[in-house]
Amino acid sequence: MTPLSYFLQRGTAMLMVPLIITHLAVIIMAVQGGLSAEEILSRTRGSMLWAGFYGVFVLAASIHAGIGMQTILHEWTPLGRQASANIGHTLIAILWLLGARAIYAVVWA
Ligand code: HEM
After folding, report:
1. What pTM value is reported for the model?
2. Considering the chain, what is the average pLDDT of its residues?
């Protein structure tokens, strides 16, 4: 693990703690009146606040999971450092794109 990967892995882990607490709190509040797509969309549609919140969350989770998987692949499979890094980077891109698409769907679509 390079110093940059180490910094990003720990940094994103710390960043996600308040994001996950907020996310759970919103889930608990949202299900009070019964959970429906309408209820979720009425909160997220056109909201730059939620777009920003989930934008940061998705980026942090993508980077964190990609770097974590890179470490696991390197330690548990015969893949070398470079191959593990390539898969990790690809995973970061895939997770980020999927997350960005989901945010687009609930805020703009
Ligand atoms: C607030 C939430 C989270 C915290 C505080 C957290 C914390 C950490 C820490 C400190 C490590 C480093 C372990 C090490 O290198 O010794 C780690 C590794 C890892 N995390 Fe997270 N994490 C969180 C969320 C997530 C999420 C949402 C995912 C998946 C989407 C994830 C996937 C991983 C993976 C795959 C590793 C690599 C495990 C390893 O190196 O053996 N984590 N996490």
Report:
1. 0.92
2. 96
